[in-house]
Please model this.
Amino acid sequence: MRGFTAMLACALLLSACGKAENAAVPTTAAGQTVTDAETQTTAVGVTEAQDGQTQAAETGDAQGAPSSAQDNGSAQNGAGNANTAVPTTAAAAVQQPAEPAADTVTLTVSFQTAVDYGILNDPAFAGVLPANGYFLQNAAVEIEAGESALDVLKRTLRANHIVYSIASSSGYVRSIGGLAERDCGAQSGWLYRINGEFMNYSSKYCKLQAGDVLEFLYTCSPGDVGNIPF
Model:
């Protein structure tokens, strides 16, 4: 009887142990399930954070300024600094030196002596000639290598639709804008000077240099446009 009782007790003990082990299995599975859920949640959180950094980085690039996500990335990873430096280096590489200014001279075409003479009172010239006595005043004109004073005069007059008459062989200027030699007396006509100095040869042969001041002046009588040493 005692032996049967002992066997029965052992059987009950074994049954209880089996139930305890079986009951522990769901707990382990549940714990694993919770762990998986936490892992998934963590993975989603990392993905969302990365997406947020990517969007912030793109927004920063579009605005031309680094975003906070880019700053954080640079602090955590040295490669962020290298990526930030690329646009600055590229921008510096494409800069081009400024082109040098073109060579120019200053051109004036004046008939103020004729205005003083009273040319504007003549019906043939009233309303035709500018009342201020200038066809051109301190105009900056680009020149090419080897151009003469006459070349620049003719080219500029054509560009401004001002008529002229010039002897083709000698380059003598007969008239500009309809105002011709002898219109204001027997000794009236057109003269020219370079940098304040009158030339005693045709403007056709006077080569210009950058920075020259070229003037074509109408004279009515000797001395009215300055001293002429010839």
In short: The chain has two domains: 2-93, 104-219.
